[in-house]
Amino acid sequence: MNNAGSSALDATRDLFGLVSEAAAQPGPVASEVLDRMDAAGLFGVMVPEACGGLELPTLDALDVFAEASRADGSAGWCLMAGAATIAFFGAWAGDETIDRLFADGVPRAAGQFAPNGVAVPIDGGYRLTGDYSFGSGIAHAEWVGAGVMTQPDDGADPAYLLAIMPAAEVELKGNWDVMGLQATASWDYRLDGVEVPESATFDFFAPVRRRGGPVYDLGIMVLTALGHAGFAIGVTRRALDELAVLAATKTRMGAASSLADSEPFQLALARLESRAAAAASWTRETFAEAERGALAGEIDAAACTRARQATVHVTREGADIVREAYLLAGTTALRDGPLQRCFRDLHAASQHFFASDFATLDMAKDLLSSASHQAA
Question: Which of 9, 116, 225, 255 has its CA 20 to 30 A from that of 17?
């Protein structure tokens, strides 16, 4: 870990008490929590240094996201989503937009990148219209991103672009009545004829790196997966920590001693810890491998697929681990508190695209292709 990464991680750890206590309050992630994260520079962990960010190595950024999520899943989720969004535009947007975007430092951003809108060409840019969901952290965002498909007027094939615009130009629609990650306030939103310059867009599939180092050549899918992986590692860690603390005082009905003195519980706890450690270790290994390829100037597509699949695995494994922890804790976990939030938040995260089977199928195809070549 470099010095900037160590400082960012220390700053995140220092916020644990504040973030954890605030998580017990209803409503979106508290403004004070996001303000303190902002003041510590955490929204800039993935942003190019040229834009005033920290541009941390992948594993350093992963550790920051994990630690923030250990304190509270919703706060960690808003951090990783906002940090990735603004980092992408920092690396790939045009100079004209960069001057506005980072005029006062690293701003807070949110948005959904699915191509749910259309972009009609206008002089020097596009007019955007579309309806979006899952704007995590949008309640506190200064800028909002959105995925759009162009509508060329010359018969050319449409392009899939990401665009960013001031939050004031976006209509917030609410609609976030969910089981988990409730405090992310991932509201629906709408664009209604919002005009953006071409410099505020980039190609989803082939972004051109204008700032920052080779790590940005890993692309949107891998770098977005990084945040989701950190989230899953952190929430799983918190659930197991809570379970171990609870064990010292929890006595199940009919038991003669506490959970901590129960050999079946001890075995279960050690097995859950082993599974969590194994999943986190493989996750770190895959992202380190993908980053090494980028730094060497050769993007390893198979390594990138493994990193995405490791994210799927650590999220789904985490959801299963917290379910086991929930059951081991008995009725204590039924009541509101950190363990219940971990259960709800990781199960909510397991419904996300980055925990779906797409990366798993891609990895399977890589494995079968490699086996076929070896047999030839």
Answer: 225
